[in-house]
Design a protein that fits this description.
1 helix; binds zinc ion; 15% helix; 89 residues
Length: 89
């Protein structure tokens, strides 16, 4: 089976990281404004953008204070085993 991982920039910090597209925490973002719908972006245009584990840890205190669901702080790659993990860098 081919590798199931993807590589892309984190929505928050912009650094490329490897992730499992099925389990990575993500936020819907309106590509025209760069904003999530809850900050004024258009929900109809929004596409999910991944967030890296470091940024999930960084935003969770604010999400907890705001009463929002916390994002997973584990690396989505930890859920993959063997060849599904793809190449190490
Ligand atoms: Zn990040």
């Amino acid at each position: 089976m081919a590798a199931m991982t993807a590589i892309g920039p984190c929505y928050r910090c912009g650094r490329p990281f490897e992730f499992d597209p099925k389990t990575v925490p993500s936020v819907p973002v309106d590509p025209q404004t760069g904003l999530p719908p809850d900050l004024g972006g258009d929900a109809g245009r929004a596409v999910n953008r991944p967030v890296c584990p470091g940024c999930c840890r960084a935003v969770n205190p604010a999400r907890r204070r705001a009463g929002l669901a916390l994002w997973s702080e584990t690396d989505s790659l930890d859920n993959l085993k063997g060849q599904d993990r793809g190449q190490d860098f």
